[in-house]
Specification:
Blueprint (H helix, E strand, L loop, with lengths): L7 H51 L12 H4 L18 H5 L9 H12 L9 E6 L17 E4 L11 E2 L2 E2 L9 E2 L19 E5 L4 E2 L4 E5 L16 E2 L13 E2 L5 E2 L1 H6 L6 E6 L4 E5 H4 L11 E2 L22 E2 L2
């Protein structure tokens, strides 16, 4: 029998068809990969908030933070080696997940492990560019800095109201003067104090701190905080929330272009197609877009007051007639 080979035109047609199919499939594959990374991120945050529920049930409702698990470091006592002991006073990860994740017992190695592997969002590609204070991490010996921490805890849930400096003879972390938020009188950092809508209050969310304008990048510290939101040096686990900006936070929206999130905000917080994940106090993880993530009520206990109007200390992209745009607005 006579055997015929493919002609050049037939080969070109086949190649063109394959190229066309690849062009149709690659965007779908890229979208599937992005969705997969977002699912991993959601699983990380779900693990954090579930562990938080277990911690507060074993500790009379108190939240892991500078006034509880990190209190010894806040009082300038030495670090105690252990998987579940915080590496900074604001380190909420180690007390919740240190044992289950088998975190290193060494303080520096633990911080690096949280940054690089154990709880890194797959879409987080931001690295620190400067060590502000403290001892170098092991990775610095290789000429590198770690990735920024992927998840923050809102600072206002963790503090006492302004003016409360001690409780039971023990110094406590309280809201500093000059902040845009005033916690309601009598607030204490317990889960039962955050308000009647735990499904709308974020215990953990995607973000990073601290932005250092001198290097146009992020710096970190390997020691404990000075005095919370305004002290020096500071840790890296806390943040006011994605609705706020200033003092090392970079959750900026462009007012001249419809409050579109900045490129940096998209990289550190709105990482998943201009959406971010937030682990809520009721245990579920919610995906928030630019508008919803700008709502300060996600990051502040109920019945607290916003002392500065929107776009002065915080963004709020909700309805123009919302009470949250007014000075002394009460957080629902």
């Amino acid at each position: 029998m006579e055997r015929r080979a493919f002609t050049l035109i037939e080969l070109l047609v086949v190649i063109a068809i394959i190229a066309l199919l690849l062009g149709l499939l690659l965007p779908s594959l890229a979208g599937a990969r992005e969705a997969g990374r977002a699912v991993v991120c959601q699983a990380h945050e779900r693990g954090v908030v579930v562990a938080m529920a277990g911690y507060e049930s074993e500790n009379k409702g108190w939240l892991a933070g500078p006034n509880t698990s990190g209190s010894d470091l806040q009082q300038n006592r030495p670090y105690v080696a252990g998987s579940s002991t915080p590496c900074q006073d604001w380190d909420f990860v180690s007390p919740l997940l240190g044992d289950s994740l088998s975190l290193p017992i060494d303080q520096l190695q633990k911080f690096q492990e949280i940054c690089m592997t154990k709880l890194r969002c797959p879409d987080n590609r931001e690295r620190y560019g400067l060590r502000f204070s403290g001892s170098p991490l092991p990775i610095e010996g290789q000429g590198e800095f770690p990735f920024t921490l992927s998840y923050m805890t809102p600072a206002y849930f963790q503090m006492y109201p302004n003016g409360v400096s001690s409780v039971g003879g023990r110094s406590v972390e309280s809201v500093p003067s000059g902040e845009p938020v005033a916690l309601r009188r009598g607030y204490v950092p317990r889960a039962d104090q955050i308000g009647e809508r735990p499904a709308s209050k974020a215990f953990a969310f995607e973000g990073a701190r601290y932005w250092n304008t001198s290097i146009n990048g992020w710096d970190y510290s390997t020691v404990t905080n000075g005095t919370g939101l305004i002290g020096t040096p500071q840790g890296n686990f806390l943040s006011r929330g994605s609705a706020f900006f200033g003092s090392g936070e970079n959750y900026y929206r462009d007012a001249q272009h419809g409050y579109k999130p900045s490129d940096l905000l998209q990289r550190i917080s709105l990482r998943h197609s201009e959406k971010m994940n937030a682990g809520m106090f009721d245990g579920h993880v919610e995906t928030l877009d630019n508008v919803r993530s700008s709502d300060p009520s996600y990051y502040v206990p109920s019945q607290s007051r916003l002392l500065a109007p929107a776009q002065t200390w915080y963004y709020y992209l909700g309805p123009a007639n919302s009470p949250l745009r007014q000075p002394n607005a009460v957080i629902p």
